[in-house]
Amino acid sequence: MTLKSLLATGLLAATLSSTAVQAAPANYSIDMAHTSAVFNINHLGFSTMFGRFGQMDGTLVLDTDNIENSSVKMVIDTASVTTFHEKRDEHLRSPDFFNAAEFSEMTFESSKVTRTGDNTATLEGDLTLLGVTKPVVLDMTINKIGPHPFTKAPMAGFSATGTIKRSDFGMGYGLPAIGDEVSLRLDVEAAPE
To answer: Which of 68, 78, 167, 173 gives 100 a disulfide partner, CB atoms 3.0 to 4.6 angstroms apart?
Structure first.
């Protein structure tokens, strides 16, 4: 065998082996017991009010070799909003805010993931709230991808944060005394299906 043939054979073997190692994007089930969607908003300039949603569902397609091939979709039950204050929560479910009777779901569906560092990326997508869909960009941190310390099953976790203007979605009650900018945080933990 000539040197040229040996090099060609070695290159082919290396290419095949690197291709075999590449994992295809996989569907992950989101662990709702360890997933949360929280928000905060300025209240009259005196304080910051925090809230969360108790019911949600979603899908995650994760490419561990190339995070940019990944995607996420979340569906949040707007009636599950809680700020740990019953009267305020009832008001938040009313037509003044989430109008949960008419718009029972809020959704986020990613359209693009762009890696920005070893464990960071931007997550672009569409947020639909009160029947209005607007583009949103979230800053994402890939917390950990690896075996669960107790079960040894593969797991993945990430956090995403961003800000929206509620008035962009037609939620104008109390402006400007109650803040227009709402800070969002989504924390997801998931395992392969």
So the answer is: 78
Once rounded to an integer, what is the mean pLDDT over residues 44-73? 94
How far is Cα of residue 49 from the mean position of the Cα atoms in its chain?
21
Give the single-character DSSP code of 4. H
Q: How many domains does the chain have?
A: 1
Q: What stretch of H or E contains 154? A: strand 154-165
Cis before 95? omega within 30: no
If one counts every other C-beta atom within 10 angstroms of the C-beta of residue 98, the result is 25
Residue 19 lies in a domain: no
The residue behind tokens 């909003």 is 81
Range of the domain at 97: 25-192
Q: Running DSSP on this structure, what letter comes out for residue 24?
A: P
Pairing, β 71-77 against β 56-62:
antiparallel
Length of the chain (residues)? 193
Enter the pTM of the model: 0.83
Residue ranges of E strands in the chain: 26-30, 36-43, 47-53, 56-62, 71-77, 81-82, 105-115, 120-129, 132-147, 154-165, 178-192
